[in-house]
Amino acid sequence: MAKKRMVIALGHRALGTNLPEQKAAVGKTAKVIADFIQAGWQIAIVHSNAPQVGMIHTAMNEFGKQHEGYTAAPMSVCSAMSQGYIGYDLQNGIRTELMRRGIYKPAATILTQMMVNPYDEAFYTPLKAVGRFMNAEDAKAEEEKGNYVEEVPGKGFRRVVASPKPVAVVEIDVIKAILDADQIAIACGGGGIPVMEQGCRLKGASAVIEKDLAAGLLAKEVDADVLMILTSVDNVTLNFGRPDEKPIFSMSTAQAEDYIREGHFEFASMLPKVEASIDFITHGKDRCAIITSLEKAKDSLAGKAGTIIR
Q1: What confidence tens digit (pLDDT) does each residue in 276-305 have?
Q2: Residue whose C-alpha is closest to residue 39's, from 176, 222, 175, 226
Q3: Which of 87, 174, 189, 195 is the most exposed place for a label (fewest CB within 10 A)?
Q4: pTM of the complete model
Q5: Alpha carbon of 116 to those of 5, 119, 193, 194, 217: distances in Å?
Q6: What is the pairing mode between strands 156-161 and 128-134?
Q7: Is 79 in a helix, a strand, or coil?
């Protein structure tokens, strides 16, 4: 009998925001992942990278400014770096936790490229802020390079990049082979490295991809049974942040689409999670998506917590 397969998307809380926080957070996250593996699940892990990629982008740019002969690093390169060092911590944390339980199962980080459409409307309206705050002089220099910046009152200027939708996972066959071998894949980190096809070449795009949309696409492509998106809240809610806020414990894809039309989910937080869930479920049979916190992950899989979408 084939094992059941799950794609887990890890949010910021599961990783922390700096190196010491990440080490501590990964230790807790690895215990939850190890519980699922011990229960017989095949696991692929997608993780966020917003604080990490911002830190790398800032560090590389500052180094390039202060040292002759060095240049700033493109966003695609910064994304690849973040996948590598977050994956390093995750695979070692998971390995340690599994070995404590007498389980030997390798985990591998795949530097994953994600194909995007060069004509995606997102490229015309960049919205994702990255990197440090800049003064007006630095912001003007960024604009002269052809980059977009926005002013944040009282703080300065920040670069903003596009957030196109992922179209295809370039390394999908590698990820499938790892899962088929009953090993652990850490892939599509930070939504994947956005690339565009130019003949035989893949060219990095100045963009970031929503990791939840990438997780949904990966789950669809590997024919997962469950897409689990771990975030900072236990449940999806209606009227978020208002006195009449109401948690949702289960909903159909049709109900989820109605809630989207009614404007219940925030553009940069809950909306991509729900959209990814709908897309995953509607492209297969007997699938479900779960949106919850790391602390409620196991209970949610048992139907005792979280928000389940079918």
Answers
A1: 999 999 999 999 999 999 999 999 999 999
A2: 226
A3: 174
A4: 0.91
A5: 26, 9, 10, 6, 12
A6: antiparallel
A7: helix
